[in-house]
Structures are given as C-alpha cells and as structure tokens.
Design brief:
Largest sheet of chain A: 11 strands, mixed
Number of helices of chain A: 14
Oligomer: homodimer
Strand order of the largest sheet of chain A: 3-7-8-14-11-10-9-22-25-21-20
Number of strands of chain A: 25
Largest interface: A-B, 56 and 56 residues
Strand content of chain A: 25-35%
Distance between the termini of chain A: 29 Å
Shape of chain A: globular
Chain lengths: 477, 477
C-alpha cells in the first residue's frame, strides 16, 4: 500500500475514490451503479449501525423486517410518492420462469408496504404508537453514482412510526433528528446543521422533512440523515385507521427516517487527508495499531514479546491490532495504517523496550507534534485518554473548518460568491421562485432552514422581501 | 392473547402457523410467499445472528456486503448451479423506466457474484485465504411456502471462502459445520446430526455438501444449516487463479455455507407446546418476565415498588420485562407470556413481598412442579442458575425425544415403517437408485450420511448389497 492517493487539492473527487479503494473500504461491482462493501468498510458500517441501533432501542424503538418486493400498485397510492420514485424503480417482471401478473418493485423505501401492514395491525388507540425500525437494502436507479454517496443499491435503516396525534408524530420526528445529530457529533465527529427542507427538497409524500447537513472537505454539503413528518398522507393512502378514546375513527399520523451507508462517505470526506483515511476512534474498526520495530531475529522475538504485553494491557477495551508481519519495514507499515485511518499507532522499538516505554503517534497530527512517549505501566489510561482527545479534536477541527467556510451574504452577488466557496446563511422569503433562481444560476440549493435561528428579520437575499428565516445555501452531493 | 392455538396433536401444521402468528413472530405479507418478521420474531433472529456472528469472528471471518443483483450471464457460468437455480429466479428486467440490456437476477445465493469479485482480488497465494461472510436477504421463487421454513425472500448469512489447497478448504467446511453444531446445541438447544448430503441432495455446484439435521416436534427432519466444499468448480467458472509459492498458476478452492431465518422455525417446532412458544434462554428476547399481583391501588403501588427492586437486582445481566399493565389479570398475563415462550416468570404477590421472597415459574415445566420460591436476597443467582438449567433441560428433552423416535431398521419393510414415525438410520450402498426408490415409495429422503458412524458394514436396506455406511432417512421439511 505504498502507492499514494491523488492529493485532495489536485482533484478532490479522485482523492475520494482513491482513498475508498486504497483503504479497502469498497470496490466497484459488475452491476451498474453498485458497489461491494469490503470487510474493512463493512466493519466501519457495523460500528455506525451499532451506534444508531443502540440509540433507537434506548428510546423505545424495535427492529423488524418487511419484504424487499412491493406490488407496483402500492407505489401508486400516494400521489407525491409515485411522482418522486417512479423514475428510479427497478422492477421484477419474471418470477420462477413466468411473467408476473403484477410487476414487483424492488423497494426504494418502504412507506407503502409498511403502511399496508400497519393498516392491518392498528385498530385502536391502544395499538399506538408503533415504533419500528428496519435495517435493509434498498434500490434506486440513479443516473450518476459514486461509491457510498449514491449507489443503485445501498444499505440503510428506515424507521417507520405511527401515532395517535400529530403532536406526538412531530415530537418523534424531532427526537430522531436529535438522535442523528448526537450520533454525527459524538460518534462520527461530524458537526451538522439541523433544519427542515424547503418544499422542493422535501421527501416525496412528506408534510415536513427534517435533515442534518454536514460540510465535506471540499466545502460542499452532504445530507447525512433525514426525518420526515408524513402527516396523514400515507395513513389515508393505506387506510391506517384507529378508534380513539372517544370511539371515533381517526387516521393515524406517521413518520419515517433514515441514515444510510452514505454516512461512510461523510466520514471519509470530513476527516481524510492526503495520506488517506482518518477515522474517529468511536467508529474505527481498529483504534490502535502496534508496530514493533526490530533489527534482527533475536531482537524480533524480544520485541514481539514486549509488544504482546502492551497488547494484553490494552485489550479488550481497545480494538487493536499488533502488526507482526515479516517482510515489511516499519515505515511501510506506518504508511499502510495511515492509509486505513487507524487513529493511534503505538511504536515499540528496542530503546523503548529498555526504558519500559512506548511511543504513541496520532494519525490526526502527522510528524513529531503528534508523538508522545508514555511509560508502559500507564499505557492503558494514556491510550484511552488519547483516543478521547483525538475524537474531540477531530470534531473541533471539522467544526472550525465549517465555521471558516461559512458566510452570511446580504446581497445576491455576495450569495453567489459565497456558495462557490462554502455554506451561505442568507435571508430567504420562502418563495420557491427565489430558491429556483439560485439553483439555476449557481447550482447551489437550499440545504435546510436551520432550526436554530437568531431572532429577527431581514431582506430576502434574492428578491429583497422581508423574510423571517435564514436558509443555508450550498452546493451539495 | 387469551385465544388458544390449535393443539399440536390435532394439526401440527396449523399449530405451527398459529403459534408464529399468536406469539407475534411474523405475519403474512401482501406479496406471494413473503412474510413480515415482526419485532418479537426479529429480536429472536437478532440473537441468532449474534450467536453465529460471534463464532464466525472468533475463527477469523469478517463480514462484507455484495450486490443484490447478479447479471443473468453469471448464473449460467457454472453448469450445475444454473440447472439448480434457474427455475427459482426472480428477474429484474426494467430499471429507471427502461428495459435492461441484460436482465438482473435477484440473488438466490451469491457464489457467482462473489466468485467474480474474488477473481479480481486474488493474484497470489498471499491473498489467500479469503474468509468472508455476508448477512443478507435472498430470493427463491418457491412453489409452496411456509412461514420461516420456506419463503420467497428470506434472511441468512452466507459465508464464502477461498483457499490455496483442497485440504484447507475442506477443513474450513468442517470448521463451519462444527460452529453450526455448537450454535444449535448450546444456543438453540437443538440436537443435530452432522453429516454429508447424498449426491441428489447436494447444493447445485458443490463437490460435497455437509449439513446439520434436526428432528422437529412432529418427528420430521429439518435441514438447519449447510456447509459446502465447492472444489474448483466456481474458481474455474469465474477464473479465481493465483500464483502459488512455486510461481505456478493454480485455481483456488472455495467453500460456501449458510444458516437462515429457517432457524427460527426450528426453534418454534423443536421446543413449543400447546400453550405456545418455548424459547431457550440464550436466544429469548425476554428471558424473564416479572408479573406483579395486587388486589387494590394501595397494594399495587407497594407491589410495583417491590417488583422494581427485583428488576433492579437482575438487570442488566438478565433480559427482562416487568409487566405492569393495568386492566389485565395476572392469569391473563401468565397466558400471554407463556404464548410468547418467555423461559422464566417471576410472580410477585403481597405474601411474597411480606416474606421478602418471589416465586419462579418455569415455562418448560407447567404447573406446580415448575415453581420454586426463592428469597429476594439471592434472586440474581437463583435466576441465572435457573435459566442455565432450563437451557440444558430443553436440550436434553429434545435429545431424548429424538432418541425415542429414532429407529435402526434392517429390512426395507422396517425402513418404511420407521420413516413414517421418525428418523431411520439404515445401511445404504450409496446407489442413487436405492435412494430414489425410498423417496418414491415413502416420500422420505436421505437427510445425511452421518459423520459419526459406528464401524462395520451391513446389507443395504433397499438392495441388500454390502454397505459401509448408514444413512439417516426421514420425511423432511
């Protein structure tokens, strides 16, 4: 793995695909727009899953599994939904050697089939709320694809809940948005802006779509998770009705929300550098790699024994690997693990062994600045502290980067300049025409209308009308 | 959940589907042959996954993810494979509104697409072995379906490994078979017979298929997991070649192996009774339910406080639920949790509270025989011991049941009688004609040729020829 990736400054897009492949996260599949998630990439996804799943379960959600195939007629029942998803469908027309009477859609998302099941399961207010999540694969026939960010098939979780009142459903939608933020900030070390989508960017069939938006290393935005208040749209389409406490028949209020393998792409783009990946310790499949340094066979045996003691002191709390491969120089190994983004390297050489110490080298601080020598006696605490520091520092660095590249343009001209180099918070009147003009002339879109707004009003950055909210404009993935 | 299931003795098949639905494990989906795995059933599957995944990882396997869609031409590359799977394929012919140039098969199993990727990844003996597993959904267009046992779509793990030598690949195949046995015996409390499949029952494309076979409550056999030595069949079909240590180009040797959601069906059928499910403690989503018993509101508050203390003493080591629902009698709750198969119930009444004790009631021993009174002070140890005892007893009971219903017929007539009422171990000459005759005349098939055989020879139970091995004949799911 001595080969170098294309530098970020030369070609960010090539840097991204180089890193994904050279760090062994994923490979292209022999099917249009699909990828293979390789073991290292999948281990990262498993940690993302675990971090989210734990939070869902702690807030009363349960997992279930619904069919991959959806009758074509289901998709057509919610007017906006069919409009949004029709162009992206993969359709099964043959099963068991015979043409099917009704074609089956490979799920692009599961509101419809889950709505159908909920209508069977819900009769009374006592059957509510239903708080179900599903970990699954979905398929959307995308025109342009990119590893992890946009693939024909991807993995995700999709939560689908049903409630007796609109208030409760909205509360759920925001609870999940906060879980997504908490995961992004604390596990992925990615600062996000919580906000609601404009009408034009809303999920097909939603009343309100909420999102977390993150800034990537090239200053573009990435939608990293969405949470939708669906009102009674799907309840009406699929007849999810219940008898309330006054014995009145009511339609339920539903929500849906999802985070996908796209999150892996976000982690790569937010933290990586020209040496490759940098993984936040909480998500890293390998948090610490021990690289032993020896000159000859006699020394090798003794160093490996010493390294084994260090390993034993750290396990099982720390996820680590002792790289005892022969035939590779320490320098080669350093590069290899840097490419894979292992947050902390422990160097163990003859001098260290003599002095009962080891060298900790931070992935996020290359060179001498990131090296510390610690006595073996206190290595466990030192490593755990260092991993916590790296986790925090990665977040702070990403936050500072976003702040540096965030602008508050007051004029249309300033907006156009701002979106070419970062995020632009600007007054927006709420008119789709103003939004469309920006998109057409700059390719930037409204990423969200942030939930946390300073009070006040100001002139719309496009039309000048008095506006009550700022929107975040940016070019996006 | 006061409704009763159809008794096993009246109609085993209806009993099975009644239990699945009334214990809330699964529901029928609006797509032919598909099911919805409900939260309680999915929690059971999550525990099965965890038990297997832990064992795979402990033996050096890693998870990855390969595409759902397989180009149609891939399926056709291995002659036996295409013959076996062609009749069962679901085919995507339309994507993004357009007819596809090459139709895509929804994976029925992934040897082909994974073989294609391995041919890209493997160049040298240093790239071997590859020890990858995948948790995924697969689709087989089955004619007759049954909840969990045979559904059009099902969930499973499929391991796919590649090795430099045949010996190593065979060793892997048997390592996995032993993992499957270990999981079945120790987690699912299901005794299994390890053996190899006859040629007619072999996986399409395998050289040797190994299996674990279990006896269900109606004395039929269920194939609960398979592990296949694929020889070089898929390596040749997909060109998985490597330079060996002598710089010679060689085809790799591959294996594949899988356990599916069918395992849930096995757990239901092996342990359940006329009151519903009985779950082995290691897999039970809820291991213990605390049912408080009160007469009035004043007592209710005090009992709930006491029950809360019991709960606190047991968590988090024990997965438990305190059933504090109002408006349901204790007896109704007992039935409800019995239907769901919770292994241990803790009853907490006013008298128990006074005497600082609780009553433990075993799900697998209905009535007084299964009740024990234990002091609150020692409740944690008592509960953990009891769960371990239940786990062991369930296994012993299943083993005794299988032994009681296993026969060793020496004549063809005795074989025909034996397969009507259980498993038949009988000498078999290895001739497919003898096997076919049994199948045609009794519907029983050779489940496996057990790996553990008493030495010796005997006359084939069908044709009388000298035979070196016994086969297990049984009617099967």
């Amino acid at each position: 793995m001595a080969t170098k990736v294309t530098p970020r400054s030369v070609d960010y897009s090539r840097w991204y695909t180089d890193v994904i492949q050279m760090a062994d996260l994923a490979d292209y599949a022999p099917v249009r727009g699909c990828m293979v998630i390789k073991p290292y990439g999948y281990a990262l996804w498993e940690n993302i899953k675990e971090g989210l799943d734990r939070r869902f379960k702690a807030t009363g959600h349960v997992n279930a599994y619904f069919p991959l195939f959806i009758p074509y007629s289901f998709i057509q029942k919610e007017a906006e939904h069919v409009k949004g998803f029709s162009p992206e469908l993969a359709v099964v027309t043959v099963g068991g050697g015979e043409e099917l009477e009704e074609p089956l859609v490979v799920r692009p998302t599961s509101e419809t089939i889950i709505g159908y099941m909920y209508s069977k399961w819900v009769q009374s207010y006592r059957d509510l709320p239903i708080l179900i999540n599903q970990w699954a694969n979905v398929v959307r026939w995308e025109k342009r694809t990119r590893l992890f960010l946009r693939t024909t098939e991807f993995l995700w979780q999709e939560g689908h809940t049903a409630h007796a009142t609109a208030e409760e459903a909205i509360e759920e939608t925001l609870l999940i948005l906060n879980i997504y933020e908490d995961f992004a900030v604390n596990d992925a070390a990615i600062p996000v802006i919580k906000g609601r989508k404009s009408e034009s960017e809303r999920f097909a069939g939603a009343v309100t779509s909420y999102t977390i938006e993150a800034m990537m290393g090239d200053k573009r935005a990435l939608q990293a998770g969405t949470s939708h208040f669906l009102g009674q749209n799907f309840a009406r389409a699929f007849d999810i009705k219940f008898l309330d406490q006054n014995n009145q028949l009511q339609y339920a209020w539903t929500t849906s929300w999802g985070v996908s393998t796209r999150m892996v792409g976000a982690v790569v783009m937010v933290h990586g550098d020209d040496q490759g990946l940098i993984l936040p310790p909480k998500l890293a499949p390998i948090q610490v790699v021990i690289v032993p340094i020896w000159r000859d066979d006699e020394e090798r045996a003794r160093i490996l024994e010493f390294a084994g003691q260090v390993k034993a002191a750290l396990e099982p709390e720390v996820r680590l690997k002792l790289d005892d491969r022969e035939g590779f120089s320490p320098g080669w190994k350093f590069n290899d693990w840097e490419m894979r983004g292992v947050p902390l390297r422990i160097e163990v050489g003859p001098k260290d062994m003599e002095q009962e110490q080891v060298v900790l080298a931070r992935r996020d601080r290359p060179g001498k600045e990131g090296k510390t020598t610690v006595p073996v006696a206190g290595v466990k605490q030192a490593v755990q502290d260092m991993l916590a520091t790296i986790q925090t520092d990665l977040y702070r660095r990403a936050l500072a980067f976003r702040e540096e590249n965030t602008y508050y343009p007051e004029t249309y001209e300033a907006l156009c300049e701002a979106v070419a180099k970062g995020f632009a918070w600007a007054w927006w009147c709420g008119d789709a025409a103003c939004e469309a003009k920006v998109k057409e002339e700059t390719t930037a879109t409204i990423r969200c209308i942030p939930l946390d707004q300073e009070p006040g009003t100001g002139p719309c950055v496009v039309c000048g009308r008095e506006s009550r909210e700022r929107a975040v404009f940016a070019r996006a993935y």
